[in-house]
Amino acid sequence: MKGLQGKITIVTGGTRGIGKGIAKRFLEEGSTVIIIGGKNKDDANQAVAELSPIGPVEAMMVDLSNAEAIEKMVDDVAAKYGRIDILVNNAGIQIRQWATEFQVEDFDKVINVNMRAYYLASRCAARYMQKQGGGSIVCISSGNSQCFTSQRSAYNISKAAVNGLVATLGVEWARFHIRINAVAPGYIMTDMIQKGIDEGIIDIENIMKVIPMKRLLLPEEIASSVAFLASDEASGITGQTLFTDGGWSKAGLPENKDL
Ligand SMILES: NC(=O)c1ccc[n+]([C@@H]2O[C@H](COP(=O)([O-])OP(=O)(O)OC[C@H]3O[C@@H](n4cnc5c(N)ncnc54)[C@H](O)[C@@H]3O)[C@@H](O)[C@H]2O)c1
C-alpha cells in the first residue's frame, strides 16, 4: 500500500490479538514497528519472536492508563528512531457488568485505557508529526460504538467517544497534514471475546443472527482497513470511522442462519 514503506509505526496492544495482526501487516508493508504491551511480557516476547522474521520490530512495555508513561513512550520512540510517522491506538480492555453494579474504579480503568490513552498518545505523537510536516493516526473503535449491547456500558461509551475523538482531532489537525481516523471492528475471536464466552455473556450463535456475513472476522481483515486508512491511499480521508464488521452496524433485525 502506498506510503507505508520505511515508516516508523507504533501499534499499542500489538503484542496479541488484533494489534498483532496490525503489526504484522505494517511489517509486510515495509514499516518499522514498535509494539506496545501492557503487563504480559510473555505475549510481547512471543510476538517479537513471531514477527521479527518479517521486518524490524521491537516491543515496549507501557501502562497506557498512566499519562506520564504515555508521554515517555512517544518521546522514547522519537528519540530512538528520529520520527513518528504512524500511530495505531489499538490497546483496549473490556469489563462486563450491569451499569447499576459497575464499580467506579472499573469505569475509570476502561475509559482511561480505551479513550483517554488514545487522546494522550495521539496528541503526544501529533507534536512530532506537526514538526515533521505530517503523519497518520488510526484508532481502534468497535461495532459497540454504534450497536449498544448490555453489560458493557463503560466500553460502549469509551468506543463511541473514540469516534468523536477522531472526528474532533481530524478537524483540528488537518491543517498540520495529520490525518486521524478510526476502524470499528465487529467480532474477532481474540482473548477479549474468549473471556466473554467463558463468562457466559457472549453467545456466538446468537451474535451470528445480527451479522449479515454470518462469520467472525479475522485480525487480518481489521489490519487491511487500518493499513488503508494509515496509507497515502487514504490521503483525502480524515475524522472518519470505518466499520469493518461484516455488516453488523447496518443490520436491522436478527436473522436465522439460513436467511
Ligand atoms: N476482539 C473483538 O472482537 C473486538 C471487537 C471490536 C473492537 N475490538 C477492539 O480491538 C482492540 C484490540 O482488541 P483484542 O480483541 O485484540 O484484545 P486483546 O485483549 O486480545 O488485546 C489487548 C491488547 O491491549 C493491551 N493492553 C491492555 N491494557 C493495557 C494497558 N493498560 N497498557 C498497555 N497495553 C494494554 C494488551 O497487552 C494486549 O496487547 C481493542 O481496542 C478492542 O476494544 C475488539
Question: Which features does this protein show?
Answer:
259 residues, alpha/beta, Rossmann fold, 8 helices, 7 strands, binds nicotinamide-adenine-dinucleotide
Kindly summarize this structure in a few lines.
The protein is α/β, with parallel strands linked by helices and 259 residues long. It has eight helices and seven strands. Helix 2 links the parallel strand 2 and strand 3 (57-61).
Could you characterize what this model shows?
With 259 residues, the protein is an alpha/beta fold. The protein has one domain (8-190, 218-245): Rossmann fold, CATH 3.40.50. It contains eight helices and seven strands. Helix 1 crosses helix 8, helix 3 (67-81) packs parallel to helix 4 (104-132) and helix 4 (104-132) packs parallel to helix 5. The radius of gyration is 18 Å and the shape is globular. The protein binds nicotinamide-adenine-dinucleotide. The site of nicotinamide-adenine-dinucleotide has 29 residues, from helix 1, strand 2 and helix 6.
Strand order in the largest sheet: 3-2-1-4-5-6-7
Q: Which percent range describes the beta-strand content?
A: 5-15%
Count of domain modules: 1
Total beta-strand segments: 7
Structural class: alpha/beta
CATH domain class name: Alpha Beta
Radius of gyration: 18 Å
Secondary structure: helix percent: 40-55%
Broad shape: globular
Residue runs with pLDDT of under 50 for 5 or more positions: none
Terminal Cα separation, in Å? Answer: 36 Å
Which H/E pattern describes the elements? EHEHEHEHEHEHHHE
